[in-house]
Description:
Blueprint (H helix, E strand, L loop, with lengths): L10 E2 L2 H10 L7 E5 L5 H7 L4 E6 L2 H10 L5 E5 L7 H8 L3 E6 L5 H10 L4 E9 H7 L10 H8 L1 E9 L4 E2 L6 E8 L3 H4 L3 H11 L7 H7 L4 H11 L12 H22 L1
Amino acid sequence: MTARSKLGQNFLCSNEAVGRIAAALGSLEGRTVVEIGPGRGAITGALAAKAARVVAVEFDAELAAALQTQFAPERVQVVMQDVLEFDFAAAAGEAGEKLLVAGNLPYYITSPILRTLAASHTAIDTAVLMVQREVGDRVTATPGGRDYGLLSVLVQMHGSVERLFDLPPEAFSPAPQVHSTVFRWRMAPRFAELGVDEKDFLNFVAQTFAQKRKTLANNLRAAGVRPAAAIAAMERAGIEPRARAESLPIELLAALWRALKAEEAGVKGESR
């Protein structure tokens, strides 16, 4: 099968990497695994050898047809669909338990796929994903580094992440111009633990990282937060006035969100 560059197709051809990815999911006995972008079926075969069922979500019609002839339908269900439209909740319901997810994510839609998986966290147990190395750097970044940002917080708020290994271009055919990273994402959302509303908090985090060169206070003001409220909330949360969002761990970002909500509640109370 010829790779289509417009679909970001770079097929994994390292047997060692295939084995490590399948093993990173843990025991596959009796489990349903959703594979994103199975391509030529390298990882699919390793998963199907041990899992009860593999749901291979492939956007390319030619590849999907080839996969259907390559694997027995009782072991591998090929779904020709955009993964951004795939119903993970329905698949989990059919499986009767949370899903395992694996995939070599197309570079051009990696972030949207990660957001889709985050939104489907109630249906997913663990995901082992291959991404462009710079995306892997961002997903696993810690506060204080240049890679720490909105994507870091989005992923880590939905569960723990662990960088497993990197792969060179020659592990793929055709070889991309970038290195790749494989990481494991164990879903365990932290919103209730940190006392924040999921949608509102993530919107807030996007505002705090809107312009990384600006201070946190300036980004909050640009988002419409009153300067006095921003300063008071930062002081209440124990954050320095000149701090930038990239220096704050998730726990402090959550503390700031709660402090701002308290400030808003106080203003509303005074107006009444």
